[in-house]
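Input sequence (237 aa), recorded before submission:
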Amino acid sequence: PRAGNMAAKQHPTIAMRPAQSVLQLDTDFPRIAGDVGCAETYLSDIEIIRIKAATVAKVVTNRPQDIEIGPFESALSAARGEVIVTSCGFLSYWQIHLAALTEKPFISSSLIALDTLSRRYTPDELLILTFDANSLTAAHLGKHKSYTTSILGLPETNHLRRVIAENQTHLDTGRATKEITAHVAAHITPKHRHILLECTNLPPYKATLTAQTGLPVTDILTLIEAKRAGTVHTDFL
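Predicted structure, token format:
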């Protein structure tokens, strides 16, 4: 027994590396299954690193160059996950800068999928659904500035938008689902062939959007799964 105890001390259990690290904004609103910051979204363990003082109001801005990026840089260096992502698509402006600071796959936003989607779809064939259309600008789209015409924002009265903007602690998922699908359905045209969800809080509604519109959907979870197969629960792909 004594020898066994000594062996245990000499060979401590090594903590498993999480599948991914999420650099999460400083928020308290509910993150339901399908949200990038919800553990139930994934088949493997994740690490959540909350970025202090990085509120929605400070990051969802039409001047992304003014975002205080230092705390994200520090979190990036401390992240243990095999893949590192952020919880807000408005950080796409910083993709190249932050990706250069790590050897791990880094995903700032689903908007980086435009590198691929732009080769398949024209601006009028792609609908980009965002949290706030007035704040999502050409600066967030990088070299794909022509896709500003593809942007559709959630109305200010939309339940999910208000929950996020006001950092409310209650989310009526049934209401959110109905409002989001009705809003998208009202703006889909015969030309649309694909939907890109900028907001990382929108993937929980992806299945309903696909059923309503018949269109394929790309989001932050699509990109995570492409970088590390077997990470995202199949219900959300």
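Checked by second reader. The longest helix spans residues 173-187.
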